[in-house]
Request: fold
Amino acid sequence: MGDGLCSDTSLNREDSYLKNYKKGHKKGYKTERAFLVKGEKLKPLQLGVMHGYMPVKALKKVCNGYGVSVNEYLVASFLWSIYQECLHGMPCKRPVSSCVPVNLRPYFDSITMKNFFVIISAVFRPEKETYTFEEVVQIVAESLRSQINREHLENLFAYNVSNEKNFILRAVPLFIKNIAIRYVYHSSALANTTTVTNIGNIQVREEYQDYIEGFRAFLSMSEGQNIKGTICSYRDTLVFTISSNLADVSVQRRFFRRLSQDGIPVRIETNGVYDE
Reply:
C-alpha cells in the first residue's frame, strides 16, 4: 500500500455557497436571547468531558416509539434535561434552544470538501407550568422539521452570501467591520442555550475496521454556552459526548438517566476532571 491518497478521496474545492446562491432572500437568522446555563466554573483551562456509549439498535427502537429521528430525540432529551435541572420544570420568558449545524451537501448535490453548512435552532419555549417529556420531544422535533427543508436552508446561507457580495459593505473600513462582526457574534452566541452537533455515522474501509475501537468528538465552549453535546456513531455504537466548563454535572446526569428510563443501556466514561 502506497503513501498516497486513497482513490476514493475527494479533492473537490467548489464554493457551494456561491454556486447555489440566489438573490432575493431575507434574513433567516433570529437573535432572540435564550435561557443560558450558568453556575460555578471548573478550574481555569479545565473542560469536563463525559461520553455516553449506547447501542444504535436500542436507540432507534426508542426513537421509532416516539415517531422521531435519532437526532430529534437526542436534541430533545438534552433540552429536556436543561429544562428540568436548570429551570426545575418552571416557565421561562426565554426559550431553551440549541444550535444544530446542518450539512447542506445532500440538499444541493454537493461533494465539496470546503465548508458547506448552516446553523438552525431547535427551540422549546417553556410557557406553561408543566410539560411532559413526550411533549418536549414533539415540540423540538417539529421545530427542527419546520426548518430542515431546501427553501429555508437556502434562505439562511443566501443571506450570508448576499452580505459578502454587497459592494457597499466591501467599502466599509475594516475596523468598523470588526466592531459589527463582534456585535453580531455576541448577539448570535446568546441566542442559543447550547449546541448539539451530529457528525453522523463514521465509516472506514473494511481492512481498517478491526484496528479501530470507535470514535469520539466534543465541542469547546463559546460565549454564553457552557455546556454542549456532540453525536457520532461507528458500526453499532453511538456516542453522545457532553462537554462543559461547569463543575455541576446535574444536566449530564439527568440526560443519561432519561435515556436509561426509555430502556437504552448507556455506559459512561469521563476524562477524569470531575474526579479531582
